[in-house]
Amino acid sequence: MRFVRLRAHARAAIVIIIAASGYCLAPGALLAQQPATAAPPTLTLADLERMALEGNPTFAQAEAAVRAAEGRRVQAGLMPNPVVGYNGEEFAYRAFGDKSEHLAFFEQTFPLGGKLRKSRAVAAQEKLQAEQSSVAQRQRILNAVRMLYYQALGAQQLVEVRTELARLAGEAVKITGELFNVGQADRPDAAQINIEAERAALDLIMAENERDQVWQQLAAVIGNPFLKPTRLAGSLDEKPPALDQTELLDQLLANSPEIKRAQLGVERARAALARAKAEVAPDLFVRGGVGYNRELLEREIALNRRTGPESQVEIGIRIPLFNRNQGGIAAAHAELDMAEREVRRVELLLRARFASTYRTYLNALRVATQYEQRIVPQAQSAYDMYSANFRRMAAAYPQVLIAQRTLFQVRVEYVEALVHVWQNAIRLRGYLLEGALDAPPAAGMTEETK
What we know:
Elements: H1 2-22, E1 42-43, H2 45-55, H3 57-76, E2 83-89, H4 96-99, E3 101-110, H5 115-181, H6 187-222, E4 231-232, H7 245-255, H8 257-278, E5 284-296, E6 306-317, H9 326-391, H10 397-429
Helix pairs in contact: 1-5, 2-5, 3-5, 5-6, 5-8, 5-10, 7-9, 8-9, 9-10
């Protein structure tokens, strides 16, 4: 009878531990209720987005590329600089003042055929391409920050849950050890609880490492390598977004910065073709000047009268007899064909990537829904049942431990599924743009769709 009472006391002590751990595993709650303390500083998704747009160097590069393209557009429309000079002729060393001619001249080339206007049109299309690259880079940065935010949010929740479980397991080890020392707990129970505590400690270490890794990636995208893990505001328990496939695909093909940039590439190629054709038109060369001729007039030599002031005018054009820019025009035609096919290539590539990403999104959404509606409630029910049976001395404590670990594992998988749902939803809403630290393409160059 005394042995039965001691075992009953041991079970009662362990039941207290189970009751203490039960509140953090209740249905509908992923996190333990923490004591009321001063709230630590938190970061919101909007804070991270603002920091990324300010600190990520690729966005500044994209904005600088727009300014550079504007500079080239201005430069392309400028007239050639004139030439101002002096021309001296017939310098007679024995009679310099009686023979020399002195002329100040002004020389200017006038491009014909609308070359300046058409060059400016090419540069204007390059600027529009640079602007689309800037829009795309901004979206890439926001997509990366948002995906890492939800990944960090999930890691934060798992660390908090594992921290609480490790604490409770440590308390269970302490109480069980005290009971074992006074003969009120069996050695197998004590060993099992010690093993569970060791596993909980290892799980906590891995969860912290995972959280730190996510924050290192987030710090790199933000552009602040010294950013430390901070508590994030928000919750994964919000209802995952329901996305319509047809609507998303239509928006992607209509508004994707990659497609718009490719379409602007066609306009640029057309402008370049027009500029190549204008190259055939010769430029007008004009030169004029005024000077003084010190030679004596032949019919007035006796009067010692000199030729005096005189002027000079030259006008000419280069005749396009052999070089009519045939090769340049042929190359421009080929580049236009390439640009038109690039639009089709980008569209097909985005369709393929969209199909893959949307399938991944649906799979993650199905998994998250299944865990929320069936798997987690069943695991919770099994844990509650084993706990109740243990309190009535109808089940062994190892069964409770197995049920508790199963419940926690399915909650971990549920959190991971939610993270995948949000990340793929962000990809779909963000035009499938990734590569927040990839350098933006140079103006006038074809942008590779990743």
